[in-house]
Amino acid sequence: MATDYYGVLGLARGASDADIKKAYRRLARDLHPDVNPDPEAKERFQEVSRAYQALTDPDKRRVVDLGGDPFDTGPGAGGGSPFGQAGFGGLGDIMDAFFGGAGMGGRGPRSRVREGDDALIRIELDLEQTVFGTTEEITVDTAVLCGTCSGAGTAPGTHPTTCATCSGRGEVQSVQRSFLGQVVSTRPCPTCAGTGQVIPDPCPECGSEGRVRARRTIPVKVPAGVEDGMRIRLTGRGEVGPGGGPAGDLYVEIRERPHEVFTRDGEDLHCRVTLPMTAAALGTTLPLTLLDGEDTDIDVRPGTQPGTVLTLRGKGAPRLRATGRGNLLVHVDVQTPTRLDAEQEKLLRELAVLRGEDRPSSTAGETPGGLFARVRNPFK
User: Is the domain of 150 the same as that of 70?
Assistant: First the structure.
């Protein structure tokens, strides 16, 4: 006598697919061997899984509705191991019952339209341009929207058609049998690449991509205060996506050229000046042209020592995300003469005598006799 598979699931004949899955899901929660170790529950779960397999397969259900048993002539007839075909139906059947899809599939077709990638370009700027800002015209070679098909990828007057391989689902299924039973796996359709549609007449310009490569010129506004290595983001100016999808972003990376006078440390500028020994001793006014072309005078006080740093406040780089400017730091080097003529040496010696420096105080380990004595006879 044929088994009443509807009765095993507690259903009437003619139950819908949704009712069958709901009944199996409810019974499987209570009877699955991982949940209920009772041997009777194990046998009962085997019967429930066998009924579910019979009623969810269209061909097997047709046999059941005609009063037959679809397992009479197939593998697993007469019961058998719960891990075989007549067992709990394999991982694929359980996933199908609990998640409403075959195996891990059920994602459906994916869109042909996808977002484009970001693009990166580097530009070199002078220090004046990064400090005070500028507008640069840059040339980029990226993917842009196809002007012939406007991203559709089809030849003019044509349209995509439903994929015959997957019937528009975007995925195909395969069934394998293992010691766990029937395993159903899902993968993207190889014909339509998972989109559910094919383009029989591709666009002659882009070949169904919906985008083409093109070279274009873009103005880039460089704000005042940017630094070497910073990136400026231009939203939507990157690569147009497949299928004419939205463009990614374009990043412009700043490379700062070295300056012959000034160096930079964040918002502060630095420069180095060299003074004669006499100017450092007597003091002087030093003319200096700033980075922005402004001429200014620096007061050097008498007695300025080597390594002195003079600060000009507010003469540095503008702050990028704040108001005001940094400082200009002027580093002073004092130049000692390496060659003196007779008159210069005489005057310098007289100055040393007047200042009492012809015999300076000895430091620890210094030979007595004075600095100029040692110069005259260094080996004594």
Answer: no
